[in-house]
């Protein structure tokens, strides 16, 4: 029952129906491989046993999570079935430190498993981490580009709607979270079309440019300049023209001095990075 509830946390009911028909014998066979001694693997898999955590070491699940990508690499993607249940158990562990450890390494595991297994087994876990505590979400955020670039284009576009959720944190003073978001958005510009950048990433970039913390704003100026560069090189020129008009309207003509200062800094970054030809800039 506890295993079922764990799986239900990550997968929906349709995913569960394929696993619940396993007999204990089939369950045991599914964890057999020939890469390392089976006793060694069984010992590792038993680390997620709650009684072991209580009697041996409360940190044992965290150590298990930390080692999992290495174990997956050793066994190879053909033996992922041996680790799948353990991974899902760890991904729903009560200790946030365990989930945080997995969140920081999920992009590495995706490389090991390949796109098919990633889409089926890692994406649901990834989606769960996106809604987790900030301590867990930061692990996903720091490697957002690394993970999304491994997904199919259609699957990747689904996350455009969720990017703005990173602007909301448990603690509003957690400015490093927003700074990391700006850094990741710069990298994400290469993964999305001009239309997607204009529709989804532009509003987030503008909000970050008006952040209360200067460190966040400075990274955001770079983000906007890279956005201008990307949109200028796109086949549809209207996006970059509309973006520049909005920069003038929103910041250059802002009634607050800080908004007008932001406009000057963005112009400085655009000219220094040669994002536009000078006649277009003028």
From TrEMBL:
Residues 11-32 are annotated as: Disordered. Gene3D superfamilies: Leucine-rich Repeat Variant (1.25.10.10). GO terms for cellular component: cytoplasm. The keyword Repeat applies. One of its GO terms (molecular function) is protein phosphatase regulator activity. Keywords: Repeat. It comes from the Eukaryota. The keyword Glycosyltransferase does not apply. PANTHER family: SERINE/THREONINE-PROTEIN PHOSPHATASE PP2A 65 KDA REGULATORY SUBUNIT, SERINE_THREONINE-PROTEIN PHOSPHATASE 4 REGULATORY SUBUNIT 1. This is PP4R1 phosphatase. It comes from Sinosuthora webbiana. The lineage of its organism: Eukaryota, Metazoa, Chordata, Craniata, Vertebrata.
């Amino acid at each position: 029952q506890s295993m079922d509830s764990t799986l239900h946390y990550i997968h929906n009911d349709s995913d569960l129906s394929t696993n619940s028909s396993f007999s204990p014998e089939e369950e045991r066979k599914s964890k057999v491989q020939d890469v390392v001694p089976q006793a060694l693997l069984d010992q590792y898999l038993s680390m997620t046993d709650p009684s072991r955590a209580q009697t041996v070491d409360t940190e044992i699940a965290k150590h298990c999570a930390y080692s999992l990508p290495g174990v997956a690499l050793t066994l190879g993607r053909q033996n992922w079935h041996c680790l799948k249940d353990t991974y899902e158990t760890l991904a729903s562990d009560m200790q946030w430190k365990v989930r945080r450890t997995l969140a920081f390494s999920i992009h590495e595991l995706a490389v090991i498993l390949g796109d098919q297994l990633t889409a089926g087994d890692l994406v649901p876990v990834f989606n769960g981490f996106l809604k987790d505590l900030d301590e867990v979400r930061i692990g996903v955020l720091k490697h957002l580009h690394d993970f999304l670039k491994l997904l199919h284009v259609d699957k990747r576009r689904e996350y455009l709607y969720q990017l703005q959720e990173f602007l909301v944190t448990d603690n509003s003073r957690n400015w490093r979270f927003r700074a990391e978001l700006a850094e990741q958005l710069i990298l994400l510009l290469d993964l999305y079309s001009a239309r997607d950048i204009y529709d989804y990433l532009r509003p987030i970039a503008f909000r970050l440019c008006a952040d209360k913390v200067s460190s966040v704003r400075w990274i955001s100026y770079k983000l906007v300049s890279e956005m201008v560069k990307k949109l200028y090189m796109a086949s549809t020129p209207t996006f970059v023209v509309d973006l520049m008009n909005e920069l003038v309207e929103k910041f250059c003509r802002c009634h607050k001095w800080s908004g007008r200062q932001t406009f000057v800094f963005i112009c400085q970054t655009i000219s220094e990075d040669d994002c536009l030809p000078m006649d277009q800039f003028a």
